[in-house]
Structure formats: C-alpha cells, structure tokens
Amino acid sequence: MSSDRLPEMTQAQRDRLAFVELRLRFVGEIRRQDLVARFDIQVADATRDIAQYKELAPPYCGLGDER
Fold this sequence. Notes:
single chain; 0% strand
C-alpha cells in the first residue's frame, strides 16, 4: 500500500485499512460486513474504507470490480 497518504489519515482509518490488507492476504477476501463487525462502523464507512484501499493498494491487491 502506498504510504504517502497515510500520515494525513486518522489512526482509526489506518487501522481499518490494515485490517483490509490483512484479510486480503490471509483470507483472500474482504466484505463490508467484516469491517462493520470488527470496528462497529456504518456500512457507508466500510464502503468508503474499501474504496480508499483500492485507490492506495497496488493493482494486484485482489480487489477487482467484479461482483
């Protein structure tokens, strides 16, 4: 993940992005509900976190637009 934008994020945002990366590496997938359950956030926040991860992560991160 690109680290040039990380300093401007809150610690909570960095924690959630780290969780997304961890789930992708070890489980192979991430769902909004995973973030909602782990961090007690709203679905809209989870959607934003996943979209932000897709912007920051390398293209081979495993998050495509397929549904």
